[in-house]
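Minutes, project huddle
Topic: does the predicted pose make sense with nickel (II) ion bound?
PN asked that the exact inputs be recorded in the minutes so nobody has to dig through chat later. Recorded below.
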Amino acid sequence: MTLDLFFDRLWQQYLAVTPSAQSIHSLLGGGAPIVNDHIAVRSFKFPNSGVEAFAKHLLAMGYEKGGSYHFANKHLDAAHYEHSDPTVPKVFISELQVASLSPQAQDIVQRLTGQVSDELYQRPEVFFSGRPWQLSYSDYQALLAESEYAAWLAAYGYRANHFTVSVNQLAGYDSLQAVNQKLIAAGFTLNSVGGEIKGSPEVLLEQSATMADQTEVVFSDSKHSIPSCFYEFALRYAKPDGELYSGFVEASADKIFSSTDNLS
Ligand code: OOG
Ligand code: NI
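Predicted holo structure (tokens), as shared on screen:
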């Protein structure tokens, strides 16, 4: 699969549940194309379906492994993959340590993943395959009580949970503050966990994000409107060698995860 097609499929799937992404492009790009810094996908850690299962397709498309990250309080591990072409988005893949959930939540997750054939993970299309299992609203709520990540992933499945504007490659803005102000003035709600700007020039990365849109999800027994996907904004700073830092920052990422929290 070509990288163009890969990201186009991810983008179309993301737009279908994130109408604000199109408005953000018009607002910030004014019609000019936007370069994305990265996208992120979420997964359950099983031998067939964690970070490695997704990563092998990126390696086959010319990506290289970047950093590894750990989020002990959320029971998550993650890694990022990057491409030598700086206009090709990096990919941040996380996996939930299912074994550290309660026995009840583990049962639910196993009932979901048990509906999926291994074959799904053998093709790069898995990245935008959506939700390959049936889910009841009561199981969604049971997961939500323990892990917002588990609930979101159970409801939305495999897709980009956000795209990220590369502010370094965005004309007309020289700070993340300026981007945030524009978004707020246009009525977007930003993730304010730990402050609207996560990170700093010292850690070589500043990030902000909108709170996710809401879409109606069809559960096996009912329909409910729940948080879908969000848009992130990243400004990278140069390392001492002059190259832009290409990694992620655990303390900041930990807060970006909250962009799919329910506001109410
Ligand atoms: C990923 C959150 C981390 C970043 O840029 O630090 C992240 C997620 O919400 O799945 O995207
Ligand atoms: Ni991100």
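Observations noted during the meeting:
- The longest strand covers residues 36-44.
- The domain at 3-100+160-260 is CATH 3.10.180.50 (2,3-Dihydroxybiphenyl 1,2-Dioxygenase; domain 1).
No decisions taken; revisit at the next huddle.
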